[in-house]
Amino acid sequence: MAPDSTIHLIRHAQGYNQLPQSHPDTNVRDPVLTPYGREQCHQLRTQFPRHKEVDLLCASPLRRTLLTTLLAFEPEVAQRGMQIVALPDAQEGTDVPSETGSPLSVLKPEFGDQQIDYSNLADDWYVKTGRNAVDHGSLFARARALRRWLRDREEREIVLVTHGYFAHFITGNIDEHSGEQTAKTRYGTTGEYWNNIMTRSFTFQHENDDEAAFVEIDESSKKTAADEQIKHD
After folding, report:
1. Quick one: 93 exposed, middle or buried, by C-beta within 10 A (0-12, 13-18, 19+)?
2. DSSP per position, 153-218
3. Torsion angle of alpha carbons 84, 87, 91, 93, nearest 10°?
4. pTM given for the model
5. Contact, 57 vs 76, CB < 8 A?
6. Smallest Cα–Cα separation from 15: which of 54, 45, 60, 56?
7. 3-state secondary structure at position 10
8. Element (H, E) at 72
9. Residues 6+ apart with CB under 8 A from 75
10. In a structure prediction context, what are the per-residue pLDDT tens digits for the chain, which is 233 residues long?
């Protein structure tokens, strides 16, 4: 583990699965970003303050998370030659079609081999059984394994682009018994859901505990609570 490593946790930009249910693409498998979602990626690229410090890019292997990372972190990919590590443990936590990923036979022709590191993907990485099952116990275990993987890296600043529901399991902002989702910070509760391109920054509470629990960096926690206050004013 790099000392004082920082994880920038980000929800992907808007995908077609988020459009009104009357839209023909809302229930397709593994949808891409909408035109507005691509605009959000430009917004994230402009607003993210630490492009020069990032030394590892990771993403859920679904198409909208890979696209969000490619577009929002273009300076790292195109200018610095950084690959995006596709992490199956970061995929979404339900088994509906729009939350189910694509096989490598689809991803590689679409994204190529230069910009994405597929080495962590088995042929059946998207099948929601076993390690990838969608019951709460499996989701908590997968989130724990993901945090441990991140903690064991040597990089100091890591970007992880994931999904709104599973982000709660990664951060621990979900009740283990009721399944109620929260986004609590030390300055207040930010609401039940992560918005598109919402970014929060974390480090680890301890170096060697089994949970590899996250703790939000103070500056990020203040910003998250302030943004929520503005939304409700």
Report:
1. buried
2. ---SEEEEEE-HHHHHHHHT-B-TTT--B--EETTEE--SSPPTT-EEEEEES-SS-SS--EEE-H
3. -150
4. 0.91
5. yes
6. 60
7. strand
8. helix 63-72
9. 45, 51
10. 565 799 999 999 999 999 987 777 778 999 999 999 999 999 999 999 999 999 999 999 999 999 999 999 999 999 999 999 999 999 999 999 999 999 999 999 999 999 999 999 999 999 999 999 999 999 999 999 999 999 999 999 999 999 999 999 999 887 666 556 665 555 455 555 789 999 999 999 888 889 999 999 988 877 766 565 445 44
Which strands sit side by side in the sheet containing 6-11, from one edge to the other?
116-117, 84-86, 56-59, 157-162, 6-11, 199-204, 214-216
Q: How far is the C-alpha of 33 from the C-alpha of 64, rounded, in Å? A: 5
What the block records as the tokens of 120 is 């962590």
Tokens of 195: 């918005």
Residue type, 172: G
- Quick check: 8 and 157 in contact, CB under 8 A? yes
